[in-house]
Specification:
It contains 10 helices and 8 strands. The protein is α/β, with parallel strands linked by helices. It is globular and about 55 Å long.
Length: about 270
């Protein structure tokens, strides 16, 4: 799984194909989408048109909240493959744990997810937005162990406790909203580090994620920014840079998205 990917959250369908094409042409080989995003068809069209062999692309999609019942997992996944124009995805995630839905059965979709893994249609399966107790509920079911936990993480909300818990349980952390939806780029300390390292503010924050050991997939519809973000592996932050960025953490108050403990939207 490439450490840097291209995210498609909140890229409207009318712009998604063009954006993903730009990312693939720039050199990205990791694309993240979801049933919830409503742009799988456009992502698939971009992959088909790009000329990049499917085998060279790491493609992720996610199970939407209304689809946790076993039959719905199967049918919605089949529909995702159809929209994406592929016969497999590299990673399929449960998008949210939904502890207040489905009778509190957080692990309801997992046995069917395991079947998709065993069939080869999902090369790996995992979780998104799962807290430690939610992960434990999945592990108690048995079957295939989840490979990934995709969680909100950025300088305003480092989410280090959950990152550590996920690591202890053998899951790779993927950080969504790595730039705090762009808001952290206005921080003076980020600008100062960027100037010192001859980098953009986005490159600095993304390099901070990479040096922490996480996988990231920033979103942009601007070709220049899409290309610039590929340069993060040339940005080497010093320990004092990392410490300064770490101090931006606001704990749970720094969230830019929903709290997995209470998120219940279908």
């Amino acid at each position: 799984m490439p450490r840097l990917g291209f995210g498609t959250y909140k890229i409207e369908p009318a712009r998604a194909k063009e954006a993903v094409l730009a990312a693939l042409e720039a050199g990205y080989r990791h694309i993240d989408t979801a049933q919830m995003y409503g742009n799988e068809a456009e992502v698939g069209a971009a992959i088909a048109e790009s000329g990049v062999p499917r085998s060279e692309i790491f493609l992720t999609t996610k199970l939407n909240n209304p689809n946790h019942e076993p039959a719905d997992v199967q049918s919605s996944f089949a529909a995702s493959l159809d929209r994406l124009g592929t016969d497999y995805v590299d990673l399929f995630l449960i998008h949210w744990p939904l502890p207040t839905r489905y009778g509190g059965n957080i692990a309801l979709p997992w046995p069917t997810m395991c079947e998709l893994y065993e069939s080869g249609q999902a090369r790996e399966i995992g979780l998104s937005n799962f807290l430690a107790e939610h992960i434990e509920a999945i592990l108690q079911v048995g079957g295939v162990r989840p490979a990934v936990n995709q969680i909100e993480a950025h300088p305003y909300f480092r989410n280090d406790e959950l990152r550590a818990q996920s690591h202890e349980l053998g899951l790779v952390t993927q950080a969504w909203s790595p730039l705090a939806r762009g808001t952290v780029l206005n921080e003076p300390i980020i600008s100062d580090i960027a100037q010192d390292r001859d980098a953009t503010p986005a490159q600095v924050v993304l390099a901070w994620h990479i040096q922490r050991g996480d996988t990231v997939f920033p979103k942009s519809v601007t070709p220049q920014r899409i290309t610039e973000n590929l340069g993060i592996f040339d940005v080497h932050l010093k320990s004092e840079d990392i410490a300064a960025i770490d101090r931006l953490d606001r704990g749970p108050e720094g969230r830019r998205g929903s709290d997995p403990a209470t998120m219940d939207r279908l």
